[in-house]
Amino acid sequence: MWPFDWRLHVAGRIEDYALIGDMQTAALVCRDGSVDWLCLPRFDSHAVFAGLLGTEEHGFWRIGPSYAEGTEAPAASRRRYVGDSLVLEQEWDTPRGTVRVTDFMPPRDGAPQLTRIVEGVSGRVPMHSALRMRFSYGRIVPWVHRVDGRTVAVAGPDSVWLDTDVETHGQDLTTHSDFTVAPGERLAFTIQWQPSHKEPPPLPDPEGALDLTVDFWREWVEHCTYHGPYREAVVRSLITLKALTYAPTGGIVAAPTTSLPEDIGGSRNWDYRYTWLRDAAITLSSLLRTGYREEARAWREWLLRAVAGDPENLQIMYGIAGERELGEAELDWLPGYENSGPVRVGNGAAHQLQLDVYGEVTEALHLAHMTGLARNDYASLLQLKLIRYLEGHWNQPDEGIWEVRGPRRHFVHSKVMAWVAVDRTIKLIEGGDADGPLERWRELREEIHRDVCEKGYDPERNTFTQSYGSKELDASLLLIPQMGFLPPDDKRVIGTIEAIQRELSTPDGFVLRYPTDGDNAGVDGLEGDEGAFLACSFWLADDLAMIGRVDEARKLFEKLLSLRNDLGLLAEEWDSRLQRQVGNFPQAFSHVPLIDTALRLTASGAYGG
Questions:
Q1: Does the reported pTM lie above 0.85?
Q2: Domain covering 6-219: architecture
Q3: Where is the Trehalase-like N-terminal domain (predicted)?
Q4: Where in the chain is the domain with CATH 2.70.98?
Q5: Nearest residue to 425 (alpha-carbon basis) of 397, 464, 473, 387
Q6: d(CA 383, CA 196)
Q7: The domain made up of 223-604 is a member of CATH 1.50.10.10
């Protein structure tokens, strides 16, 4: 059946991918057995496999049943994670028998590893492995050669070592293996990254690494304190959030990918392999409320190192080790996912002014304090410094939560979160855990509240608006009752929820962030549209539960759960027209509100069955 036409290998739908990772980087594995995305050695490193954003020429590693030239690689008949873990099993039923491939990345102790174990289930199945390594996001072809019986690919500072007992051969700048697997037979392939100037990494122990990986995840999940009706969805989301945490520092990436489009064929493509303070803060909140205090402590320490002694220059995002310079560039040799260009690395929004971040960070520190996380005096000092900065800047226009690349505005959500920052700091002082000008900040809290209610509310339509003086709506307004800015039964809150339902809902009932057409076209400085934003849709379910419409909330929540792929993973958005997931994947900002809404619905008893 060889040679194969590998040009027929194209990236799958976003939801066709599974996530595996070692809490320092992550790989995406397609249903056809192809690893199409992997950055080594960190989340934000250059990709070794970048076929997801290009073609097979930009790197991939497929292991699966052999197939005839001129046909497409067969998709797995079924796949699953092994229990509550990040170990992936995919099985193919073929005319010659059934075969299983187990993919995983063990928690790192030395060189990063990706291991793939092929196991015969029944019959004798011809298999093929094609490993095409391309460094620097698919641009550089490495020198592949043999060293002491091992295969190594070298380019500049990088080397990737392949270890397997299966015979390999090179063809078309690709490392191939043809073999047959019998029932009960297990054959392993492992790649490891190592700086090219260092000694080779130790020989791997695939079976031992598999046991270690399964045990690690089982033990980690045992700490989860949520045991409600949505436990499966909550646990899978928690595992995903843990996988997006960079273990050495505690930083949390928004997603392990870059430039998966929010609009297929469009240019709304961004690099999410960094730590947004907002995303990380809400992730910390979910982890704390489900029993994961160690992760919360590590994130708080990361925050204190990243911000250091300079809260006046607080960035909205940092690198996973606290790096500040995240310059944005375009990779013109990559055509982009389904020709959605440009492909971007770095993120130019890092230096935007987003006042809401002060509120999210302060809320996270407040929750950590309230849930008994060991006191850190510098965390309290940082909180006070943030408020002193806000005193002189809260009334400025900013780019807002959605990082618009158009003109700055007085976004209502930004002002609400400035109020949150002041409110939580007042509570810290009132509790005797910090010292500050209590009366002055109480007056500031009242001033911000009054300003929002006077300038950000449209009394004729009974709704808050996206920004002062605008008529447009914004789904971030759904956070007003959740942050305690106004009580859920306030008529202005109910009016805003109902207005968003009317004006920002898609035909299938999900929620857009804001309108991107009509009079509001160009508010974000970008062309094209985008899908329904999943986090906003979860926020709506939360709000509906808060105002007593619990059946409606539950139905929306369970409809959102149905959008997850078969492995329980969510991207950033849902394209209602194409009926598919879009945006970077998997997305922390989607899995966090899933957890939060499940907790709220469970507490209210609003669930079926």
A1: yes
A2: Distorted Sandwich (2.70)
A3: 11-141
A4: 6-219
A5: 387
A6: 44
A7: yes
